[in-house]
């Protein structure tokens, strides 16, 4: 990695592409540029300071030690290159906390686009530089991005962040190599993005979901898109207040649950089954609300459900109790309650609850709960139909690509190009669901030396831009919960744990074999309808057997530990705990051994150094670092935090109670 002045004498390929049309037409330079900084912390003031920045341009890296040098480098680039110059940054909210105030103070800030305060996705300067965030495009760490897309890999452990450094602190060749690789990775990924989008005449999307939105939009011709928007706007709640109420109380996410009675027990020979592309399968297989919801009499709800209508309803349940070993409803989705008892955040019993549910949720309630009575306080119904072709055709295309590339990758697992293609396509497939549950954003994030928000559109204006009904996302998750809960209900006490699209159990495989045979028939009919290759789609939505854990132990949702053989056949411990990095526990288990790791996996499991970081944003700060006075107009102070797996004392009592009842 060379110092920034070297760039003055370097010839850079000046290649541009025209993207967009009309008012959106832009000339974009396709130089592949990545930028990153390293910072040092001052614990006394809880502030951070940049001591080296690095930039890679078409595979060549340069660095500087102070901000003035970086702005000099930008001036050199501006002289050498034409068009707008995109600079890619991974996790741009960090770098921009330092850089954005300087751009604003220099009068060089043209505009920002951010999804939330301090979370910019794009920052454009008046002299034609565009900073873009790659983390939002990949939903990956830089290490994972490199592994899946790049030849250059991230170096780990070669830069000790605990050492105080200033702009004059010497860096070793190893430390500089660490800095260099971080931007070379981004330069390589920029090449991929320019090939995929810029050189095809398209703007690079802001997010992974944005990539899929473009695929869907390409299905339309002429006025079709506008006509679809007009139609779909009728499938929204009538007012923004009703929309907010619907998204708060009717939308339920994935079902994540541990059978309370087995919490804390060390179980053996636990099988794992996982749904293949669960959300895409539900999108392809099911019927969805495709007309406006209209009010119906409460006593006609059963008839509407029997006739195949989508029904949403506000319901009171009386003396409701879990039928068996499993509990369903999240505390956060109960609007009103009396006499309620919860197992790890899910309803076990109540004298009365009020909830807002779909007919799919009602079917799951009937499966999982018993109750003395129910009263429908209000209901609406809509006609059901398959999702529109413009959505399903895009979904089918991406799924087919994933399957085809997946087969090639199995035959050639070390092919980096295939790996990059597969991860890109897999990300697109996962984003179809994300696109359907994205919330409306009626505010614009602003920055004028300080962050703020301003209303930038009305509800009616926003819904007239959409070709996706919010009810589709609500029903996708409802159908997936139905699939999982039906399996759990069939397996009973032998189902131990579930999370979104997977079930851990010690039952025989008859249920899964029967389910898969049914899904294969569903896929055959789907392929006949849409003229698809059955051999490609025959396994969509099936339960895959993922293996058997020699040992399994859970302490509730998002808290479990397993022991299973690795590729070499050696038994290895893996742990999934919300808030605890997997590698932290993996290293811990290697140090103390598998048996001890299972013993230590108990409430109040504590790590003083967890491998997890927290952050604090600052405005203007000054500190003396290793003898040098350093100054920032804005910064992000990142610090390591410990971890303690807290288990509520009430839940511990409930576990004991459930164990007694299950015996």
Give short descriptive properties of this protein.
663 residues; alpha+beta; 7-stranded antiparallel sheet; 37% helix
List the helices and strands and how they pair.
Layout: E1 2-3, E2 16-19, E3 26-29, E4 33-42, E5 47-57, E6 60-64, H1 67-80, E7 84-89, H2 92-105, E8 109-116, E9 119-125, E10 129-133, H3 135-138, H4 142-149, H5 173-196, H6 208-217, H7 224-232, H8 240-249, E11 256-258, E12 267-275, H9 278-285, E13 288-289, E14 294-296, H10 301-306, E15 310-322, E16 336-338, E17 341-343, E18 346-358, H11 359-368, E19 369-370, E20 373-382, E21 384-385, H12 389-411, H13 416-437, E22 443-447, E23 451-455, H14 459-463, H15 470-491, E24 495-499, E25 502-505, H16 510-530, H17 534-537, E26 543-556, E27 559-565, E28 571-577, H18 582-592, H19 594-600, E29 606-618, E30 621-625, E31 628-632, E32 635-644, H20 649-662
Parallel strand pairs: 1-6, 3-7, 7-10
Antiparallel strand pairs: 2-3, 4-5, 5-6, 8-9, 9-10, 11-24, 12-25, 12-26, 13-21, 14-20, 15-18, 15-19, 15-20, 16-18, 17-18, 22-23, 24-25, 26-27, 27-28, 29-32, 30-31
Helix pairs in contact: 4-5, 6-12, 6-13, 9-15, 11-15, 12-13, 13-15, 18-19
